[in-house]
Design a protein that fits this description.
heterodimer, A: 6 helices, globular, B: 474 residues, alpha+beta, FAD/NAD(P)-binding domain, 13 helices
């Protein structure tokens, strides 16, 4: 299974939405907001962020046989938590922050 | 009205950028009878095209959808507008005149001529009339009043800042609602979605190469040119065009750290006016104020603090978001080859970060004095506080990895003054060694004001535009 940037963003937004159970926004809207924000970013941020996101997606492939976006929800949550506490926490902070803005949109 | 776009256009005066500096400059030039063309890179959207501080507004009115970064240790996430009216469309419109001691500092450090508080007063007054600067009538919202109460409880002074706001109509004001209509009434032409790529001096005139969203590149010829693209894009355009002397070497910010307080009673009711209280007595070391505290802004500030974030669902009406800001950090703007977005870097001195950190401690004390039952600094690794005594357990210095700095004010990248060693322009915004080229935005400021800089930008643009007209743009 190949890494998929948009599917990974969707899976990240869905995982944040699961954790924010009281937020009223939809994971789909959060995914669209994150992708629109990504498209508008400076190119020198966009390229490394895309590469890091694809690495994040591929990370569980050898251990679990699937990329992040195809994992069941519990395993997605575990991988996100691990990355949030690790050296790639800025990557997670980026996706969590943008997803939260959309999910908690008044 | 849509302005027709042709491959080659001509105007007496071209102003690039329609934020507060550009809009005021263009208005005065048009009213002086000059054919004036105002170019704006972003779209021309009504002030209320999207709810204020919403994700829609972020996507449509902010540069890079709000994802812009000055790289450093720590980095600073800053936001700029990219729409007709510039920053005035997306900010809260809090307004201050430049503090006189700041003008004195600029006179000393940059040798700025004739920029005293008295000399600027008529320009402040002229701008305030059109921009509808007003104090909040009646009682401030509780979220705001709490900060005032906390300050009073500690013997500190707090003020309620005026805003660009029509309180009778209940409507925020901005350039698109005030100066831009005046500019159009004076016969000025505005073209939105037009990005200036480079400028050059040719045959005694300025030539702007620009690209419209829907057309090929166009060439615009002007006798006089004002660049007012903001403190990052102005130096980027000038450097792309080969103008580099003291351009983009001295960018400054007002970096902020934020804190969320949970109170014992509702303070944050839907429909409340925006908060206006500020504690200014510690400036220039740091200033303290209130932020927009919608659920989405609370969630964003608490992105690394799940424990406090969990209260948003049930207690958002008892939560308030507050900030501390100062002038720490020295930045640089560099144009990248072939790229639209310049690279911005920042370096910090430990003393500036320490002062900001001290400001967070002061803010925490004020919030507990105001009746907060829990306070969460928006700093990764910092636990929620339940009493002011718990501050004693904080580290002596702010760990740089915890310093999540954000900024909504960028300025001083092309400072004005007669000190040619450090200044990009003279005291009136004329770029050194570039006839007929002026800067008219926050780039001209010589350093931080700590107070909201929009009033300074407007008054200085007004002063400089009148001088340019009087001198026939020489």
């Amino acid at each position: 299974m190949l890494p998929d940037f948009a599917a990974t963003v969707g899976a990240l937004a869905a995982t944040v939405a699961e954790r924010e159970q009281s937020a009223t926004g939809s994971p789909q809207t959060a995914r669209d907001f994150v992708l629109a924000s990504f498209a508008a970013m400076p190119f020198y941020l966009r390229s490394p962020l895309r590469a890091a996101t694809l690495i994040f997606d591929l990370w569980p492939l050898f251990r679990r046989g699937r990329p992040f976006h195809a994992l069941p929800p519990a395993q997605r949550r575990a991988q996100m938590q691990a990355w949030e506490a690790g050296p790639a926490r800025m990557l997670m902070r980026f996706y969590v922050s943008l997803s939260l803005v959309s999910l908690w949109h008044d | 009205m849509i302005e027709p776009i042709t491959e080659r256009m001509r105007a007496d005066v071209v102003v690039i950028g329609s934020g507060p500096g550009g809009a005021i400059t263009a208005t005065l030039c048009a009213e002086a009878g000059r054919s004036t063309l105002l170019l704006e890179e972003g779209p021309d959207l009504p002030l209320d095209a999207a709810p204020h501080f919403s994700s829609d507004e972020i996507l449509h009115k902010y540069r890079n959808a709000g994802v812009t970064m000055a790289f450093g240790n720590p980095s600073v996430s800053y936001v700029e507008a990219r729409c007709v009216g510039g920053g005035s469309e997306v900010n809260r419109g809090l307004y201050h005149r430049t503090p006189p001691y700041i003008l004195d500092q600029w006179a000393g450090s940059h040798h700025v001529d004739a920029l005293t508080a008295d000399a600027l007063t008529p320009h402040f007054e002229a701008c305030e009339g059109t921009a509808r600067i007003a104090a909040l009538p009646g009682a401030p919202p509780p979220l705001s009043q709490r900060l005032g109460d906390g300050a009073a409880g500690l013997g500190w002074e707090a003020i309620a800042a005026p805003r660009l706001y029509d309180y009778e109509a209940g409507r925020k004001q901005s350039m698109s609602a005030t100066f831009i209509p005046r500019f159009r009434r004076a016969g000025g032409r505005l073209i939105a979605d037009m990005r200036a790529l480079r400028i050059r001096r040719i045959n005694g005139r300025w030539e702007v190469t620009a690209r419209h969203r829907c057309t090929r590149d166009v060439t615009i010829i002007a006798d006089a040119l004002f660049v007012a693209c903001g403190a990052v894009q102005t130096p980027a355009l000038l450097r792309r065009s080969g103008l580099r002397r003291n351009i983009g070497d001295s960018l400054r910010f007002h970096p902020m750290l934020k804190v969320v307080a949970l109170f014992d009673a509702p303070v944050n009711r839907p429909g409340d006016p925006d908060p206006v209280h500020q504690i200014k007595m510690f400036e220039p070391r740091f200033g303290i104020g209130c932020s927009i505290s919608s659920p989405s802004m609370l969630a964003l500030a608490l992105a690394t603090n799940a424990q406090m974030r969990a209260h948003i669902a049930t207690h958002a009406d008892r939560m308030g978001l507050y900030y501390v800001q100062n002038g720490t950090g020295h930045g640089r703007v560099r144009a990248l080859p072939g790229g639209c977005d310049p690279l911005v870097s920042v370096r910090h001195e430990a003393a500036g970060l320490d002062e900001l950190y001290d400001g967070v401690r002061h803010l925490v004390r004020a919030l507990f004095a105001a009746g907060a039952i829990m306070v969460q600094p928006c700093l990764p690794g910092f636990a929620m506080l339940r009493s002011v005594e718990e501050l004693a357990a904080w580290p002596e210095h702010l760990p740089r990895r915890s310093a999540l700095l954000t900024s909504v004010h960028v300025f001083a990248s092309c400072p004005m003054g007669e000190n040619r060693r450090i200044c990009a322009t003279d005291s009136w915004g004329r770029v050194h060694d570039a006839d007929g080229l002026r800067i008219a935005d926050a780039s001209l400021m010589c350093g931080p004001t700590i107070a909201n800089p929009q009033g300074s930008v407007m008054a200085i643009a007004h002063r400089n535009a009148l001088q340019a007209i009087e001198r026939r743009f020489a």
